[in-house]
Amino acid sequence: MPTMLYIHGFLSSPKSAKALATHRWLRYHRPEWRYECPFLSSRPIEARSELEAQVTRLLEEDEDIYLVGSSLGGFWSTYLAERYNLPAVLINPAVSPQRRFTELVGQPLKNYHTGQPFTLTQQDLEELEACDVERLHDTDLYWLLVQTGDETLDYRDAVKKYQGCRQTVETGGNHAFEGYEGWLAEIAAFFEEYSFNKHESASYK
Question: Which of 14, 69, 169, 202 yields a CA-CA distance of 20 to 30 A from 42?
């Protein structure tokens, strides 16, 4: 059974609009798929550990794992894709977030959904830098979806980072990625094609 692992963004949660839309769509259109969206710690070292443990568990069950990551979730999806050779769809992903987050160190922050307070530290930035993927080993693993109207991140950073990968660049929109739900059928098809090609290739070995 395939598992779609949705990875939410920084200071977000499984209650984000895109996470809920993904779960809802899968229930009706891919009921045989498992959906997982863990609530991740805002502390990078803890988020990485949580995601690695979840992927390891799913791989032990011989699951096909499909990653969908939004914003900082796109950063973590890239880390997991490279480490475990998994396909990933990236929605307005954060590129080298440790650089952008420098101005947030020491500032009072809180989770958008739970209100839980959080303070970013220099150690957190160092952990993000340690997980930052400098070079993609297989561009076929990725599909980048960005909108030029993203008010939080510069979409051009992602276009450059994921050059050679499948890319969809929409004019306008915002950081939440307007019209996301309308892309879910094609996202599912991307993963299904990847799995088909992977299993076909394995059958010839």
Answer: 169
- At 48-77, the pLDDT tens digits run 999 999 999 999 987 899 999 999 999 999
Tell me how many degrees the CA angle 162-5-182 measures, rounded to the nearest 5: 70
pLDDT in tens, 140-171: 999 999 999 999 999 999 999 999 999 999 99
Half-sphere exposure of 180 (CA within 13 A, CB side): 25
Q: What burial letters (b/e) apply to 82-119, b meaning 16+ CB within 10 Å?
A: beeebbbbbbbbbbebbebbeebeeeeeeeeeeeeebe
Report residue 9: phi and psi, to 5°. -85, -175
Number of helices followed by number of strands (H, E) in the chain: 7, 8
User: 79: which residues sit within 8 A by CB, 6+ positions away?
Assistant: 48, 51, 131, 132, 133
State which amino acid sits at residue 141.
L
Domain span at 47 = 3-203
Cα–Cα distance for residue pair 111/54, rounded to 1 Å: 22
Residue 47, domain CATH: 3.40.50.1820
